[in-house]
Amino acid sequence: METSAKPSLKERQFALRESAILDAVDSFLARKGFDVMTMDEIAQEVGISKASLYKHFDSKELLAAATMTRLVQRSLDVVTERAKPDAPLDNLKMLVAWSVREHLEGRMPSLPSTRSSTHEFMTKHQPYVERLEKLTEILGEWILAAQAAGQLNPALPGEVVLYTIYARPCDPVTDFLKMGGALTDDEIVAAIVTTCFNGLQPV
């Protein structure tokens, strides 16, 4: 039986450096967003030369697409590992809670403006598009199932519910609550999940 060759030390070091770059990008983008990001700032954030950064990613757009592709893959991993059978609403709440916590801990990059060149590039970046389509399909099935069970408003188009869920970790309300200091991270997560799915009316 043939086994695949193990990566060389140089390949492992390259992969580790690339992971460190994307970790730094996640943190940077969680604080400042895509539209103000520059390759110079990312190189400085990672502690490498700009030339070294370009060996991994030759443009700001490719760097942004790579970090968003990794984010969607992480979301897919969470959906696969934590989802409960026949519990669509609980699964949607779980994903929102996870994504908001990721944002609070500085691991959730802010999405680029829909009017930016970065966003246009991402819509043509096949690894990102493929993963996003897969995640959207799973969430779409949960939304339809929750609506059919009377757990979500069936009059709302599924697209409205989907984009509301996708937008939660990017909601500045989370940052204002964090800065205010009156609530713990757990309390912020619970509050965002509650207002997302129950609104402001008493339950």
Quick overview of this protein structure:
The protein has helices at 9-32, 39-46, 50-56, 60-82, 88-104, 117-122, 126-148, 158-167, 172-180, 185-198. By secondary structure, the protein is mainly alpha-helical. It has a domain at 61-198: Orthogonal Bundle (Tetracycline Repressor, domain 2).
Task: Describe the fold and architecture.
The model has no long low-confidence stretch (mean pLDDT 89). The longest helix is centred in the N-terminal third of the chain and has 24 residues, at 9-32. This protein has a domain at 61-198: Orthogonal Bundle (Tetracycline Repressor, domain 2). Helix 1 (9-32) packs across helix 2 (39-46), helix 1 crosses helix 4 and helix 7 crosses helix 8 (158-167). The protein has 10 helices and no strands. It is mainly alpha-helical.
Largest sheet: none
The count of strands amounts to 0
Give the helix level as a range of percent.
55-70%
Measured on Cα atoms, how large is the radius of gyration? 19 Å
Annotated CATH topology of the domain at 61-198: Tetracycline Repressor, domain 2
Series of H and E elements: HHHHHHHHHH
Low-confidence stretches: none
Oligomer: single chain
CATH architecture of the domain at 61-198: Orthogonal Bundle
CATH class value of the domain at 61-198: Mainly Alpha
The CATH homologous superfamily of the domain at 61-198 is termed Tetracycline Repressor, domain 2
Number of helices: 10
Shape: globular
> Which secondary-structure class do the elements indicate?
mainly alpha
The whole-number mean of residue pLDDT values reads 89
Q: Quote the beta fraction.
A: under 5%
> How far is the first residue's CA from the last residue's CA?
60 Å
